[in-house]
Amino acid sequence: MSLYLVSVWLHLLAAIAWIGGMLFMSLVLIPVMRQRGDSQLAASLIGPVGRRFRSMSWLLLAVLVLTGLVNASYRGVALSSYVDPQFWAGRFGSLLAVKLLVFVAMLGLSVAHDFFIGPRARTVAAGESNPSEAEVYRRWATRLGRLNLALGLIIVAIAVALARP
Ligand code: HEM
After folding, report:
1. Is 84 left (phi over 0), alpha (psi -120 to 50) or beta?
2. From atom 3 of ligand 1, which residue's Cα is the shortest distance away?
3. Cβ neighbours for 127, distance < 8 A, ≥ 6 positions apart
């Protein structure tokens, strides 16, 4: 099997694991936790699950960038193409540009969600001194998580068009 096929395989696996994980969190784990109405159980489970998924998803995003660059090189994108305006004006270049822009927006949201809003929601909830403030952070963490999932789905849609000239 060529390096190209291995790279596309890894790229797809990383996308599946990352988006599948987000879908599981937002469609299965969090709704089930809410239905149970047990805030202590939710806090004891969602925190560790979120932290473990966070480490996994940053590793997956790194795999996506590395294998994405290898895939692009096998599709004839030389390093010099990245500074060539003509490349970005073509069909492949413009689709890749949109994909990378959405990807960068998603990275920004992930940083906000994983390192600021999410941990803050957990700290405030653990203190229990201000439940309404904890609720505000929790809602924002949920919104950012959903938005990230939506951006991930948009990236996959662009990727499908990118791979089919
Ligand atoms: C720096 C970031 C990225 C680059 C440079 C990149 C580049 C590429 C390239 C060149 C292909 C075509 C592969 C082929 O030759 O068939 C591809 C396919 C694909 N990419 Fe990415 N990618 C990046 C990030 C992502 C991310 C974050 C996701 C997921 C959310 C993703 C999902 C996919 C999928 C699902 C395909 C397969 C599409 C298909 O065969 O229909 N990529 N990517």
Report:
1. beta
2. 68
3. 134
Q: Give per-residue pLDDT as tens, 99-147.
A: 999 999 999 999 999 889 988 877 766 666 667 777 888 889 889 999 9
pTM of the predicted model as reported, rounded to 2 decimal places: 0.90
SS percent in the chain: helix, strand, coil, step 5 = 90, 0, 10
Q: Are 4 and 71 in contact (CB under 8 A)?
A: yes
Report d(CA 94, CA 122) in Å as an integer. Answer: 40
Query: Would you say 33 and 41 are in contact if contact means Cβ atoms under 8 Å apart?
Result: yes
- Separation of CA 152 and ligand 1 centre (Å): 11
The verdict on the CB of residue 15 being under 6 Å from ligand 1 is yes
> How confident is the model over 21-28, as a mean pLDDT?
93
Which residue among 12, 59, 71 is best mutated to probe the pocket of ligand 1, counting the most ligand atoms within 8 A of its Cβ? Answer: 71
